Amino acid sequence: MKNGSADEHLLADEEESNGAHYKCFLSKRGSKALTPFSPYIQAVNEAKNYQWTPTNPEGYFLMATAESVLSFDLIHDKIRSCREVPATVGLYGDFRGGNRLRKAIAKMMERTFMGVEVSTANVCISSGVTAVLDLFFFATCDAGDGCLIPAPYFPAFDNDMAIRNGVEPIPVQPADTHTYIPTAVEMEEAALAAEKKGINPRVLLITNPGNPLGTLYPESTLKELLVWAVNRGLHVLCDEIYANSKFGPSANEFISMEKVASIAVNENLLSEKTVAQRVHTAYGMSKDFGMSGFRVGCIHTRNKGMQKFWQNMGMFAAVSNDTQHALSIMLEDEEFVDYYVAENNRRLKKSYEIFTSLLRAENVVYMPACAAMFCWLDLRSLLPEPTFEAEDRLWKELKDESRLILTPGRACHYAEPGFFRACYASMPPEHLTVATQRLTAFVERKRRKRKAEYPISV
Ligand SMILES: Cc1ncc(COP(=O)(O)O)c(C=O)c1O
């Protein structure tokens, strides 16, 4: 092999205390995929195996993973009662997902959040929204094409679009740093800037409710962005994976992109045919139902080509028939679904209130949320200088001194240093109280230290 070819890639063996390296003989792209999408992921992975409990007080509080443990007791009881194994589950099925689960998910989405009729034919199932995004970008983009995303955004989107498909994420920073709501003008400017660099924007990716902000986009914004994007010939993918997690005072302001699209068609802003080809929604069971380990997600698309593509390519990320069967039974129980969604939102609200009331008591600045499972913390005042290096150091100090792991704003592609995402649903409320006290004590210590160092400016 020639010098620099992929099979020369060296990997440090973490098992070996002498730091041994070995060649792993992977392709260039395989070697590139060895690195996690963001450096903080390494710490998350390590902390997963060493979490805080009352009997392990040295452990970490992991608030950097978008996972909710709050209502799994309800799902666990229910899913066990749905476990039966008919002989048909042992055979290959439809790689868009079996008809029964597609129908159950379509009905659930229609009833609980989409606000439009959802036909089974328009739902394709894969093993999580991660797989849905990977397939979607494969279907809509060529390597080097771009995807516009309002920042700050969910860090793993970079991986989802880039790692296999070579699609370039184009973060769009909103000028309104109070609401973080982007405008079509900002999108157009970002698209033009990307084109100047030779990147062809093909997709607008919106997340609503938002990750990392835990807020909702107003209908007017969604309509403005949708009309702009469709008229520019872009696909619009709305990730609504948190659509059933809404608990704040403005929770009823949620509106799905499909509903917005139907309004835009009624108002003659867009044609029905173009909307059917260009507008797509991703949904999954990982967040609202706390079932990230089951690996189930779906795309709602009326684009016939996309559906045909899924029939073929869905095989690479299919959900086991066994899981599909149990989940179908669970979702067909509408009474359970309604009870679960209401109870889960009650629990999310409780945890959000525990978290934010402790923050307020110590004057820690955060952006009020009403949905999803996150809170966006503004810790800029703790940075000695407004740089990402200072943000990295603060993140590390929080991890090492207080054993608390947050998601840094840099990983969410936010342009200004000093912001962090906290997931308050990743632990039971009793643990959350201890974790939040750790956080506020850390902030207090930092403030005192800064005051001692810079008595006038602080
Ligand atoms: C906005 C968003 N989309 C997609 C995903 C991935 O979900 P899944 O577990 O279905 O792959 C996440 C997970 O954090 C997310 O926050």
TrEMBL record:
**Which Gene3D superfamilies does this entry report, sorted A to Z?**
Aspartate Aminotransferase, domain 1 (3.90.1150.10), Type I PLP-dependent aspartate aminotransferase-like (Major domain) (3.40.640.10)
Write down the PROSITE patterns for this protein, in alphabetical order: AA_TRANSFER_CLASS_1 (PS00105)
Q: Keywords, A to Z?
A: Pyridoxal phosphate
Family from the record: Belongs to the class-I pyridoxal-phosphate-dependent aminotransferase family.
- Record-linked InterPro entries: Aminotransferase_I/II_large, Ethylene_sulfur-biosynth, NHTrfase_class1_PyrdxlP-BS, PyrdxlP-dep_Trfase, PyrdxlP-dep_Trfase_major, PyrdxlP-dep_Trfase_small
The entry's protein name is Aminotransferase class I/classII large domain-containing protein
Query: Which residues belong to any copy of the Aminotransferase class I/classII large domain?
Result: 88-439
Q: Which Pfam families match?
A: Aminotran_1_2
